[in-house]
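Hey, resending since the last one bounced:
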Amino acid sequence: MSDYKNTKYQIRLPLILALGLAGGIFIGATFSESSPVQNDLNKDIQKFKEVLTLIDRNYVDEVNTSDLVEDAISHMLNKLDPHSYYISAKDKVAANEDLQGNFEGIGIEFNIFKDTIVVVTPLSGGPSESLGIMSGDQIIAIDDKNVAGVGFTNRDVQKHLKGPKGSQVKVTIKRKNKKSPIDFEIIRDKIPQYSVDASYMIDDEKGYIKISRFAATTYEEFRVALIKLKGEGMTKLVLDLQGNGGGYMNHAINIADEFIAGDKKIVYTLGKETRFNSQANGQRKGLFEDGELIVLVNEGSASASEIVTGALQDNDRALVVGRRSFGKGLVQAPMDLTDGSEMRLTISRYYTPSGRSIQKPYDDLEDYSGDLIARYKHGEFFSADSIKFNDSLKYETLSGRSVYGGGGIMPDYFVPLDTSANSTYLNKLFISNSIQEFTFKYVNDNKKTLEAMDYKDYFNNFKVSQQMRDELASIGKANGVKPDFNDMNKNQALFDLHIRAQIARQIWDNEGFYPIFNQTNEVLQQAVKLFDQAEKLDRSKL
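The structure tokens again:
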């Protein structure tokens, strides 16, 4: 099931109006004579129709009743729980796109530098690549409409370049060393999106896989990555679910099954209606049922991430390292409405194999939305001792280790948030797009040299020069960021690491980016030292 943020509306109808609409959504406009509950719903439906009709006929200004209805639905669902929500027909495609594993468009990665849309790279196999659009091309017009220097945002670019497969868009390109602009007639197509961000060998025996979300293609992507790493000699694995906000539950179950032997329980759900009750057990011989496994989580790991983590922890299959996860144990089902819109309604709670519900309390929705900030202020990100669990929510893993429900997955090994590796100046350079602009320009100017390098050689030997740092500061200044050379000199190693990582991404994609960037990942850096504990955990089941 998918997780999206609830839409917040400034204008709200009275709750009684929303409740009236609720009856219409679930039951329909007509009933045979039946139970008192159905009769009450009939009255609510009639009341809603009556109020809406009176507004339409008598309100002093013109009213868009469709907007009132949509607002009423959203208001009503917001009253139920933090994760039930409404998606209008016009927003439905965009809302589902992130989890479908693909989108429809022209197939480019772009950025906006100095109010100009620049092609960072044409996506492999996409229509732009096949037509010869190149990295560094500037898009100056779309369908003969000027888009350079007019304040186009990322959202504007997506609105104009994304579109149904088979549709056509004209893009005018300004290319370096070409006097005249070049027009391309691009037929949009399906463009794959990947949810396994990276998979690589940390050393001769340890592998690393990062999953950013659980989308429609995640399980297949994960298997490909796992098979590749096993072929490279992997016997120990780090599965990184930090910041993974969830997605499709079935993909989480299938991935957990690759690690858990036999038919052990993975997850179960309980709802008000028995048809929403379910239980998932192991079904197949997994690709990595033996060998030490460590799972990384933090406060951004939610929902499907917690299904995987909870199953592996409760079955004593993995050592969990990091910080307490988000705590979302509510399951949403998509329900189509007649006008093409959709409602995501919470229909059950999920439970880990030991019986834990890891949904944190949501009696106060305002407190719920501010929970992560409250955790930070309380000191939870820095000390495990600040976290207190209720003994009534105590459960046991297969080997008898104590675990707790009531609000996220608590790791077996806590790693505090590292605030020492932080630079205000570096953050400003990222926010202003200056780091991205500098590294893009550097790669463009040195592409032949970089592409001729072996990645291992780049990783071990590429150095950031003072000239490069000075040029970065100059670009930052042009983008409104005042140079702070004291900060840059104090945090030179951090600056250099991010510059190297961003350059590597443009040449070797995420496979080049993450091995460098992960040197700032304090949870991973600690986890790779803990495989002896993971091995003891695995032996405890024997």
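The radius of gyration is 26 Å.

Sorry for the duplicate.
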